[in-house]
Write a structure and sequence with these properties.
This protein has a single domain, classed as P-loop containing nucleotide triphosphate hydrolases (Rossmann fold). The protein has 7 helices and 5 strands. The chain has helices at about 15-30, 35-45, 45-70, 90-95, 105-115, 130-145, 160-169; strands at about 5-10, 30-35, 75-80, 100-105, 150. It binds shikimate-3-phosphate. The site of shikimate-3-phosphate has 10 residues, from loops.
Length: about 170
């Protein structure tokens, strides 16, 4: 049986990983870290700038290095970027080091919650909805493959989602 201590939140952009992670951290009196903010602190630049200068591949490398460090910082609540599950090494690191919660979110809701978002480079496109659909088609099976529990954020407020996670944890 998996040793439960860390909680890792995975799921698409707009699922509420940061809001729910922060609330969970308060409830459990555990440190909360958002991997994107950690990458920004480490590099001193924001995510769009990393994408601009190093491309998505460069960002993914930094994200994997950051996640590899953070999963060992026990105990921690970690909100990961929506694309973190793309790399097998991240999926393995998350699965091996904590309780993984998939925050499920419909594309409609993702669109609502990321509307006019200039901080997410992958959504700087003519048709963000189509992009979000494409991303979900690839990523949803990966989210499912690594999740210990799934919470549908469309059904719950952030506080209720926290309660659902605590029931399963
Ligand atoms: C990304 C999601 C973002 C951020 C980057 C790439 C993705 O994080 O890591 O813009 O590939 O889905 P959030 O899921 O926290 O928005």
């Amino acid at each position: 049986m998996k040793q439960v201590c860390n909680i890792f939140l995975i799921g698409p952009m707009g699922a509420g990983k940061t809001t729910i992670g922060r609330l969970l951290g308060k409830c459990l009196k555990m440190e909360f870290v958002d991997s994107d903010r950690e990458i920004e602190q480490r590099t001193g630049v924001d995510i769009p700038m990393i994408f601009e200068y190093e491309g998505e591949a460069g960002f993914r490398r930094r994200e994997a290095d950051t996640i590899a460090d953070l999963v060992r910082r026990v105990p921690i609540i970690l909100a990961t970027g929506g694309g973190s599950v793309l790399l097998q090494e991240n999926r393995a690191a998350l699965a091996a080091n904590g309780f993984v919660v998939y925050l499920k979110c419909s594309v409609d809701r993702q669109v609502e919650r990321t509307f006019k978002d200039s901080h997410r480079p992958l959504l700087q496109t003519e048709n963000p909805r189509q992009r979000l659909e494409q991303l979900m088609a690839t990523r949803e099976p990966l989210y499912r493959s690594v999740a210990d529990c799934t919470v549908d954020t469309g059904r719950y407020s952030s506080r209720q989602a926290v309660r659902e996670i605590l029931k399963a944890y």
